[in-house]
Amino acid sequence: MKSKFILSSEKSLFLAARSRISAFSVLLLFSAAHCKSHGEIPSGPKTTTGPWGTIEYYEVTVEPPTSILWPDLFATRSYWNFGELSQGEILSLFEEFEFAPDLIEKLRNDGVWSESETGTEVEIDDKVVESLTTANRTAMAAWMRANNNEYFSKQLMNLEIHDEGLLLQRLKPSTVALIQTVTFLRNNVVSMMDRPYLIRQLGNDEQEKKALIRTLFSTRSLLARLVIDEDADIEALADYWSGGGKTPGIRSLLEGVRNAPGVGKIDLIHLLPPFARKYYCSFIQLDDVNPIGVPDCFWTSIQFFKARSTLRLLDKISIDHYLSFDFEEIDGTSTFGDMVVLFNRTDGKFIHSYVQIAGDLVFTKNGRSFARPLILTTRENMMSVYEEGYDFETRIFRRRPQT
Amino acid sequence: MKHISRFTAVLTVITTCVAFAQAIPASTNDDTQVSGNQPWGVLESYEIPLTCPEHLLRLVDIPSSQTEWLFNQPSIEELKNHLAVKGFSEKEISYILDGCIAIFDPAIGTRLFPDDDHVRNIPLPLRVKTYRLLAENPRNRFHHRPLFMNSENVSGWFRDSGLPRSILADVAQLAYPTPTAKGYYLSDVSFLLRQVHNSYDEQLVLRALMRRPTLIARLKLDATSDLVELSDYWAAGFKNKDILPLMESVVRTKQVDSLDIAHFLPPTPRRNLYSFPELSEGASGRFPDWFWTCYNFFRFTPVDIYADSPNRKAIMTREFELALPPYQFGDVLVIRNGDRAIHGCIYIADNIVYTKNSADIYSPWILMKLNDVVAYHDMSGDTEITAHRKRVLPIP
């Protein structure tokens, strides 16, 4: 089923690129097929069973609250950054992206070129954005991912639209139409790089701008419950959910639920360590940042078992510095609380990290944006954004027991 | 024998319940409480016992198994006079003093050591009277802060604790009603420890006695839920508005019919709920108390401020305003004895509050019914509650 699905989406992408059908339309087609084949709109929650017991889980969509819609999200300057490449090299690159000749000429003659601290930039206007084909956008995104990750992670957005109809109802039809013109598929992920363009098009309609940002940053998460019946093996469950004794208080809660008739299940939020409980399905706040950096997936996963978050984790020191003292690398299967890190196989650079929860369920934060919450998700869903072009190795780190 | 007949009734209940529990599956004995449809929606709640974690239990300063009653008066005559002033009859004074070994220490007072029969058989009214007097001296540790049971169904209270029936019978005998007549206190921990004969059983008794009753509460949600009304209540006048997107999403999700209210708490109480303080939380010299818990309810990053902090009253005046019932989500409820604030907790919904009942590490952050919290803290039976609502600061 999986290979069939990929083939189907690749074919759709090919068709989209050639016929200028937007990726958004492709997504709608794909989603309808996907729902049908997987019987979506299920009658009950999904389950996973293993050493962690039996977990029921279901999907919700978390939108950023208006309190964290910082001005940066509404930036209106559209630009591309090509790092150390010269203007000439960039113009050649446009040919590789299959830009139309007249578009390349326009960029050569009318583009506003500059050198910033991070490299060569060209500012683009509405006409440039509107001239791009889906294939152009896809090619440029792939190049940025491989060659300018800073720009890529800052400008590229993945749209986690779960229920398109409902989310699109939040926006005016004209806004939805605009989104359709700038989205493209990266494997199974719908992406876009033109948020500033969309903001510009909305002019002074502040309400619609907020709705747009909240819609674009909608993030899928899971709510989950552990089933605890009267026959539950509390010893085994406590050992698993305490991370081998790192959060010993879990046991009394599990016992309490088992001993209280009628309860039957406990929300997974109560089985997470304090840090994760505080942030689960929620957002970072200004208290969490400093001028050095902002929380990301590494910040989220490395302090999973910490009693409280610390700005120390934003310091620009090597990952090994953090890992070598408190963690040990392990072979084999990851278990609750283990930090799983993806390193680029070629240069060893850090790509992504997450925390293993149970089975296919993981705890993570996607990217550095304030508008992305810390979530429980499936590994498959999380990894979907790394299917295109990444060559990574996975290493597992386990926090050493506190002495 | 009057005292025996009073608790014989309770003991009968115990026996009946134990027998009954063996006869029917536990799952049919459902303690679920469901509220009617209110501004907060429909809440279902379950009472669960929260046991002190083993690593904290190992830190317990286990009291001597010799029961000791400490009075400040350093001589027998002064003690008798003191008891008479406090309303004890001559007969009652004799009952208390007879059979006790006494040590008179000018530096401390009179230390009385009653034997087991004396402790077990003291008439209930006299036990209540005596223990309330002993409670005035903090050195009478378990009289000053007795264990609290919000039920007279002792077997139900200690369900699955592993306590032998003989201990349960002793607990039924020794428990005494709270001043509010809601629930029972138990002060005779030393007596109970004396009834066990090895360290394993000793730990069993301590673990059982240190259980804390709490509630798991779930908000019923479905497509018919009035999202506007629910949002209005749980957002607490925009102080907790960040929970709204999740609530909206859950209402839209057909697969779920209820959600644990932990998801509707602000980040700091969500982090702490059902947990005991980490030892690291005392690294700055203090562990969180009730005021720390209340003041930091809506704060993302907690501020170290305590019930005895000199600026507590000024902060309350500046950042909170007095409120009248009906209480709202996030209101600070202060239990007062005259001008003295003896405890505070946070109103959640349906008479359920978020509370930390003591500053020690054995006191977790939990959900309880408000009247249970009052019964736990009201040692004199004459308290009142004032509500304080956090002001909404103007948006710049």
Describe the structure.
The complex is a heterodimer of chains A (403) and B (396). Chain A is an alpha+beta fold. Residues 1-21 and 26-42 of chain A have low confidence and may be disordered. Chain A has helices at 2-19, 23-38, 87-96, 101-110, 126-131, 134-147, 149-155, 164-168, 173-182, 195-201, 206-216, 234-241, 250-259, 274-279, 297-302, 319-326, 379-383; strands at residues 46-50, 53-62, 79-81, 112-116, 119-123, 157-159, 184-186, 189-192, 219-227, 265-267, 327-330, 339-344, 350-358, 361-365, 374-378, 392-399. Chain A is globular. With 396 residues, chain B is an alpha+beta fold. In chain B, 36% of the residues lie in helices and 21% in strands. Chain B has 17 helices and 16 strands. A six-stranded antiparallel beta sheet of chain B has the order 11-16-12-13-14-15. A four-stranded antiparallel beta sheet of chain B has the order 1-2-9-10, with no helix packed on it. Chain B has a three-stranded antiparallel beta sheet with strand order 3-5-4. In chain B, α1 crosses α9 (165-174). At the A-B interface, β2, α13 and α14 of A face β2, α13 and α14 of B.
Fill in the keyword field for this structure.
heterodimer; A: 403 residues; alpha+beta; six-stranded antiparallel β-sheet; four-stranded antiparallel β-sheet; 17 helices; 16 strands; 39% helix; globular; disordered N terminus; B: 396 residues
Q: What is the terminal-to-terminal distance of chain A?
A: 48 Å
Strand order, main sheet of chain A: write it out. Answer: 11-16-12-13-14-15
Low-confidence stretches of chain B: 1-29
The fraction of residues in strands of chain A falls at 15-25%
Number of helices of chain B: 17
- Give the overall form of chain A: globular
Mean residue pLDDT of chain B: 87
Residues in helix, % of chain A: 25-40%
Find the structural class of chain A using helix and strand composition: alpha+beta
Beginning-to-end CA distance, first to last residue of chain B: 71 Å
Instruction: Please tally the helical runs of chain A, counting DSSP H or I stretches of 4 or more residues.
Output: 17
Q: Kindly state the percentage of residues in helix of chain B.
A: 25-40%
In terms of per-residue confidence, which ranges of chain A show pLDDT below 50 for 5 or more consecutive residues? 1-21, 26-42
Mean pLDDT of chain A: 85
Task: Kindly provide the radius of gyration of chain A, computed on alpha-carbon positions and rounded to a whole number of angstroms.
Answer: 23 Å
| E-strand count of chain B | 16
Largest sheet: number of strands, sense, barrel closure of chain B: 6 strands, antiparallel
Q: Most extensive interface: pair and counts?
A: A-B, 51 and 53 residues
* Overall strand count of chain A: 16
Strand content of chain B: 15-25%
